[in-house]
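Hi all, long-time lurker, first post. I run a small reading group and we've been trying to get comfortable going from sequence to structure in the token notation. Rather than ask abstract questions, I figured I'd post a concrete chain and ask someone more experienced to write out its structure so we can walk through it together at our next meeting. Sequence below, copied exactly:
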Amino acid sequence: MIDRAEITVKAGDGGSGAVSFRHEKFVPFGGPDGGDGGDGGDVVVAADEAVTSLRAFRRRKNYRADRGRDGAGKKKHGRGGLDLVLTVPVGTVISYKSQIGDDSLVADLERPGQSVVVAKGGRGGKGNTHFATSTNQAPQIAQKGEAGEELAIILELKLIADVGLIGYPNVGKSTLLSAVSAAKPKVAGYPFTTREPVLGLVEVGIKSFVLAEIPGLIEGAHLGRGLGHGFLRHVERTRVLIHLVDGSSASPAADMAQVNTELSLFDSALGGKPQLVAVNKIDLPQVEARLAEIADSFSAVGTDVFFVSAASGQGLPELMAEAMDLLQSIPAGEAGGIKVPRKVFHPQPRRTAPAVHREGGIFVVTAPELERIIARPDEAGSDPPAELRQQLARLGVTKALEKAGVKPGDRVRCGNFEWEWP
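-- Answer (accepted) --
Happy to help. Here is the structure in token form:
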């Protein structure tokens, strides 16, 4: 299972508006008829039950939505770009990657069919029909399409299970999971046999719950040792933990304490989750001979234990029944760990007030709305400042320049265009 990926997404750019005029025979006063550009496509992330890992995002890192098409004459609007939908497993948490390390949460897709827009497509530019006025009936300007958002996001899968099965490597977690469910985890006699979380459905009478085996917990797991750091996040969603310890260990109670310490060091809330402790491998003669000793060691630290054999099945029905009873006693909203808050992405307003600063003797204007207009070359050769004067006032650029102290004869620059202030 690939449960974390970093990708870059780029929403589609908007199409540019058209500068066009009607030239039809016997149609007087044709006027402007440039159509608008289409909006760029969004990048959407959606939860899909058919997807089980983030593996596809390890092979490909960059994703781009469709751009909007340019407008044309006869008021023909450009086609909007198609959205790009990226499907992820249910339980995926999405964050924006920040350069300063403080990633911002976008959404937690905890149910099938949930989706979120992670990058908004650029708006299409307006054709010259929008710039006609009583004093300028033949506008030679149009808007350039707006650029789509481009950013890096983090996809992190946190499995949604009712019960998490934890413990040191090679204590029999995989054997237990395969004994109580139809799951088929890899079982072998060496540590770290299971290298990814495995889910199984456990039936208790007419009821059932999802049990997840969490692999790789060793001392120092919270620091990334072993496999634990990569998979401890999956424990956060579980409501109950079954802590399996090896009865043949020199000190099963000490093993339990060490794993619980790792949970608390990774996330302090995990140490407070409801937990059942089970001592495994009681079918072995050396374990059977010291059952009373093991029971006393756990009793000394105030912990009740179940004695089970994952290999023979002894004690497993009672353990699963107790897990079901414990689940039913916990309200569904109380998972015991940190709940990822639901959040809906709301794009920030695109229009910002124009800003002016000086570079030498030139007044430099930062006004995206104006740049979209003057970024398009004047196709008819008219004087751009005269054409754009009303746009300067409409967008608040004139007021911003006057506040900055511009005087007639000063040079003004916006985008790639520079002119003399009248």
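A couple of things your group might point at:
The CA atoms of residues 351 and 368 lie 8 Å apart.
Confidence is low (pLDDT under 50) at residues 188-195, 218-229, 335-347, 377-382.
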